Amino acid sequence: MKKRALHPSQHGFTLLELLVVMVIIGMLAGLVAPRFFAQIGKSETKVARAQIDSLEKSLDQYRLDVGRYPSSEQGLAALIERPSGLTRWSGPYLKKGIPPDPWGNPYVYKSPGEHGEFDLLSYGKDGQPGGSGEAEDITNW
């Protein structure tokens, strides 16, 4: 068998060329990744605000039926299961159950609230009161 001679156009890439391409890709990733992840944080905050709005509407429907908001002891669970002693309850008021906030933590519900008839909030990404940025509390007031 006769070996074919390689033409200059059939040679592979040099190690230096591969390294240059990898450095360029790394620089692009370094520029794009922070902007991408910042958008994810903003979208989680928007989801939390939308979920709080939905829970508020369910709580308002509960109040229209029962005549008052659930107590802090009953909590948001009163939107899913009839509390004992209520005859005018027409739930469940949420189709898919009580969602956790976008960071996997339960929403905090207090009735009566300090800022209105009830307070509904998520402590944000850190799960602790206060904070700023993605860790900022998201509230219904």
TrEMBL record:
**What protein name does the entry list?**
Type II secretion system core protein G
Q: Which InterPro entries match?
A: Bac_GSPG_pilin (IPR000983), N_methyl_site (IPR012902), Pilin-like (IPR045584), T2SS_protein-GspG_C (IPR013545), Type2_sec_GspG (IPR010054)
> Which segments of the protein form a coiled coil according to its record?
none
Record's NCBIfam families? IV_pilin_GFxxxE, typeII_sec_gspG
UniProt topology in membrane: Single-pass membrane protein
Keywords assigned by UniProt, alphabetized: Cell inner membrane, Cell membrane, Membrane, Methylation, Transmembrane, Transmembrane helix
Q: Disordered: where is this region?
A: 122-141
The entry's cellular-component GO terms read: plasma membrane; type II protein secretion system complex
Q: Name one GO biological process term.
A: protein secretion by the type II secretion system
Pfam families cross-referenced by the UniProt entry: N_methyl (PF07963), T2SSG (PF08334)
The answer, when asked if Transmembrane helix is one of the entry's keywords, is yes
Q: Which PANTHER family match?
A: GENERAL SECRETION PATHWAY PROTEIN G, TYPE II SECRETION SYSTEM CORE PROTEIN G
Give compartment(s). Cell inner membrane
Family indicated by similarity: Belongs to the GSP G family.
